[in-house]
Amino acid sequence: MTHPTGPRLALPEGFLMGASTSAHQVEGNNVGSDWWAVENRPGSFVAERSGDAADSFHRWPEDMDLLSELGFNAYRFSIEWARIEPERGHVSRAAVAHYRAMVRGALDRGLTPVVTLHHFTSPKWFSALGGWASPEAPALFAGYAEVAAEILAAGVRHVATINEPNMIALMHTMIRRLGSGREAEGAEGGEEAGAVAFDAGTVEPDADVTRSLIRAHRAAYDVLKAADPGLQVGWTVANQVYQPEPGAAEAARAHAHPREDVFLEAAREDDWIGVQAYTLHRIGPDGPLPVEPGVETTLTGWEFYPEALGLAIRHTVAVVGPHVPVLVTENGIATDDDERRIAYTTGALASLAAALRDGIDVRGYLHWSALDNYEWGSYRPTFGLIAVDPRTFARTPKPSARWLGALARAAHIPDGQPPVGVPADVRSAG
């Protein structure tokens, strides 16, 4: 039985449709990073090590081949500071050449590269200085951005300085709460490690780290624009989609500002802003509320709520302003039921289509994630469009990959809320 396609919206010319990864989560053996150190420390709070991950450090050509063959026109990936500057002041020319080859490889396959400079992991030496809490952090990050500009010069137009700085500031507080002993040492750069189980109601972002991240972003922005004025520079924010219960509007605003809005406000001078949305958080007069009993949740325990994407886009534009274009740099679902992935993404794209129809300047949609990968302590939450065998590293596109790739090739997305199912021609694919 085939599934009716439902109404579709034609995408604007040049719209980016693709998928995202991050270096530590897919490359493997990132031994110079702070998170590798934490994962491999005896008694670590990290349940599962990253190890070889998806071995994308060596298999990136295969990953890009698949994305291109599936029909996508963009790929967001990150470059790893710990590989590029393994010791302070020492630049690995081999690492620079490796990431330049990735940029050229993407372009050769018709994939627009969207490159992130920092996706949660930092060099061990940076964390030993205090990481983002160090007074030196903005200048050190700007120095790294200067080296990264050599990689971007291979043909990158879109670059994100820091991924989800609001999660970094929150996790800095969480790690500090774990204790002042060895367990918390060196964990600074991997702030997202606990984000899968993150309880937004118990943590206040570190204000000093927030200021440091904003200064680092602005310093890197200036360095990158000086190197190439044509670069489109921004950063990405984890959109929590805070929804107030009756009588809780003021509580929601107060909760949102230090956890999200201050980072959006910092993007008002940027060339674009990255929206990263997965679910929503309901806020009562006394703070966040748990997911209601009986509500469908994902493998991360988040509420199944695809409409969060449209709400996140609209909130971002309301804070940043309509003059800054939006890129959806992450959106997806942790599930082992690929039909639910298609259902979720159909709803998310429909909410994006509604934003486009309302005149909001959205330039792209990059699904999280291209591959099943290391989700900061566990391989269990499977977000990928492409499955990866943990022993052979064989890649197998899921039906959702073929479905979403076909939409990308046709340059159309669902418009409205059609009945959701899996077309017969992709049910047995991959």
From TrEMBL:
List the InterPro entries: GH, Glyco_hydro_1, Glyco_hydro_1_AS
Entry annotation: catalytic residues = 330
* Keyword Hydrolase among record annotations: yes
SUPFAM superfamilies from the xrefs? (Trans)glycosidases
Q: Which residues cross the membrane?
A: none
Cited Gene3D superfamilies: Glycosidases (3.20.20.80)
Name the UniProt key words of this record, in alphabetical order. Answer: Glycosidase, Hydrolase
> Does this entry carry the keyword Hydrolase?
yes
Under what name is this protein listed?
Family 1 glycosylhydrolase
Q: What family does this belong to?
A: Belongs to the glycosyl hydrolase 1 family.
What organism does the record attribute this protein to? Streptomyces durocortorensis
